[in-house]
Design a protein that fits this description.
Blueprint: H1 5-30, H2 34-44, H3 51-62, H4 70-88, E1 98-99, E2 102-103, H5 105-108, H6 111-135, H7 140-154, H8 159-168, H9 176-202, H10 206-233, H11 236-239, H12 245-248, H13 254-280, H14 286-297
Antiparallel strand pairs: 1-2
Bound molecules: geranylgeranyl diphosphate.
């Protein structure tokens, strides 16, 4: 695989996902319509890196899947991620005015509209998951299992719980164990779910599922450590969101706890552990290895 292969996969994921996001956005612009519909379409139309869809795609292929219908499952994960960004930027959370190079949804519209739009995206994601599973011809048992994985990762045991702890921890010194718990839940859980969903969409091989889940758990944490580093080292233009926000909010991060070099070492260690998990499970995927490398070396 060429060094640019992560970009190639991200572009493929973007193409597949963006077509479906645009179609959802069109429908939501019609119904509910009005400002709510416009805000939903605005949020879905922002240009992210599409790392989570790429992970669904790569995990699906690593598990032997070949059907283009996987795009629906990848889009469902991206919609949950999109909702989390809309709410994360609200004044009651991280209070940011820029995201993906554009004004955040509550700045473009207003706080009540952005709050409603965020909540409304969760059932839209579940609908997309069901549509994707149907397109892949998956049975209801498999869909149920996939729904549980996506919603558990999004909920109190995953992303919502992690964000909750993160908000409570603002202005407080944290130990590494507490930080790992927050990062694994706030960011890692959805990334881990993306890999698990790719595996389950391809088949019911439990060992494959366990291996790709273990891979996802490691790169999920590596992804948030890299995010901590980028917040401290990249520019607002590179990130498309306000740089240096963690310091402003007095958040404990890998950088504040371990320093930049220590954080870099930990990100690499977890990316390598992701590769070890693949090897231990006998899963050969140059693409997943390349994505693990990309996740810790990216500049945005
Ligand atoms: C009710 C407490 C409560 C929470 C609601 C808002 C929320 C749920 C959770 C926040 C989760 C979150 C935004 C975590 C940060 C994840 C992260 C590193 C986002 C940036 O991801 P990228 O770099 O962004 O993939 P793009 O824009 O490229 O998609």
């Amino acid at each position: 695989m060429s060094p640019d292969s992560a970009e190639v996969l991200l572009t493929e994921a973007r193409t597949l996902t963006d077509a479906r996001l645009a179609s959802r956005a069109d429908r939501l612009r019609q119904s509910p319509g009005g400002q709510d519909g416009a805000a939903l379409a605005y949020a879905l139309g922002t240009a992210g890196k599409r790392v989570r869809p790429a992970l669904v795609l790569a995990s699906y292929r690593a598990a032997g899947g070949r059907d283009a219908g996987i795009a629906g499952i990848a889009t469902a994960v991206e919609i949950v991620h999109t909702y989390s960004l809309v709410h994360d930027d609200l004044p009651c959370m991280d209070d940011d005015d820029q995201r993906r190079g554009r004004p955040t949804t509550h700045v473009q519209f207003d706080v009540p509209i952005a709050t409603r739009a965020g909540f409304a995206l969760v059932p839209v994601a579940v609908e997309e998951l069901a549509d994707g599973a149907e397109e892949l011809g998956l049975d209801s048992g498999r869909l149920g299992r996939m729904g549980r994985i996506l919603l558990e990762a999004s909920g109190i045991r995953g992303m919502v719980g992690g964000q909750w702890l993160d908000l409570e921890a603002e202005g407080r010194d944290l130990g590494l164990a507490e930080l790992v718990e927050i990062h694994r839940r706030k960011t890692g859980a959805l990334i881990e779910a993306a890999c698990a969903l790719g595996a389950l969409a391809a088949g019911d091989d439990e060992s494959m599922l366990a291996t790709l889940t273990a891979y996802g758990r490691e790169i999920g944490l590596a992804f948030q450590i890299a995010d901590d580093l980028l917040d401290a080292t990249a520019t607002t233009e590179e990130l498309g969101k306000t740089a240096g926000r963690d310091a402003t909010l007095a958040k404990a991060t890998y950088v504040s706890v371990l320093g930049q070099d220590g954080a870099r070492r930990e990100a690499l260690r977890h990316a390598q552990a992701a590769g070890t998990a693949l090897e231990a499970g006998g899963v050969q995927s140059e693409t997943l290895l390349t994505l693990a490398g990309y996740i810790v070396k990216r500049r945005s």
